[in-house]
Amino acid sequence: MNRRVALSLCTLAATLVLSGCFTGQRPSFNSDPLAQGVPTGDGAIDDVLSRLDLVTDGPATGVYTVLTKFGMTTVSATVALNRDRRVVEVGSVRYLDTGEQQLTCTLQTDTETVADCTVGFDPTRISDTGITIDFYAAEAAKRLRRDAQAELAPAVSHQEVIANQDATCVAVTLAGGTATYCVLLNGMIAKLDDGDVTITLGLLVPTVDGAKFQPPNP
User: Fold this and answer.
1) Cα separation of 47 and 143, whole Å?
2) Assigned CATH topology for domain 43-206
3) Neighbours of 43 (CB within 10 A)
4) Under a CB-based contact definition with an 8 Å cutoff, are residues 172 and 178 in contact?
5) Which residue in 18, 137, 174, 188 is a FRET match for 51, CA 20 to 30 A apart?
6) Among 87, 82, 95, 90, which Cα is nearest to 56's?
7) Residues 134/156, Cβ–Cβ less than 8 Å
8) Separation CA 175–CA 147 (nearest Å)
9) To the nearest 10°, the Cα dihedral for 152, 168, 184, 202?
10) What is the pLDDT of residues 25-80, one digit of tens each?
């Protein structure tokens, strides 16, 4: 075997080895630090997150007060959960998920009857409140994970009783102050107080009003 042939074989072998390194299924992982189920490494924070990530499917109804700190405006909010159905009301806007369709409706202030429904969830209808339809669990978890990335010291856990319910809380020290998150045993937020909003649970009952889950008459 002459030198040129030997060199060609060596080059071919190296190419096959390298190509083998880049073939086949590559390992994958969730690199989004804000995704559901991703731990932060802070035990006090992860204790609260583990409950927010596994929120109850009901039946449960929670009534909240939401203070939007920009403008210092207050609005009421209600969350009703029953298996694969849910209703979230923020002010005069009702989001209805029947399990088969999603609607965004307007509540008549005087009678609380539903009118002017559109198909799908329209998040812009409550954008001025600083919260989303998922404020009671998934959004709170995302906020907490975001704060965990910016914390200046290990978070501090404590217990509170909110709306006659036991809640596990965590205080996160940030550059702009302290953010507090409290979660119930069923995974629903009991209190969220950060630089943008203060969400406070006022009432929790283990039932739902079936009428809320009925889509309006066409």
Assistant:
1) 15
2) outer membrane lipoprotein receptor (LolB), chain A (2.50.20)
3) 12
4) yes
5) 174
6) 82
7) no
8) 10
9) -80
10) 343 455 677 788 889 999 999 999 999 999 999 999 999 999 999 999 999 999 99
pTM of the model: 0.82
Residues making up the chain, counted from first to last = 218
CB 140 within 8 A of CB 200: no
Kindly indicate the confidence band of residue 108, based on its pLDDT and cuts at 50, 70 and 90. confident
SS3 category, 181: strand
Angle at 62 (CA atoms; ends 59, 63), nearest 5 degrees: 150
Identity of residue 11: T
Domain regions of the chain by residue span: 43-206
Q: Report residue 217's pLDDT band, with 50, 70 and 90 as the boundaries.
A: low
Do 153 and 131 meet the contact criterion of CB atoms below 8 Å apart? Answer: no
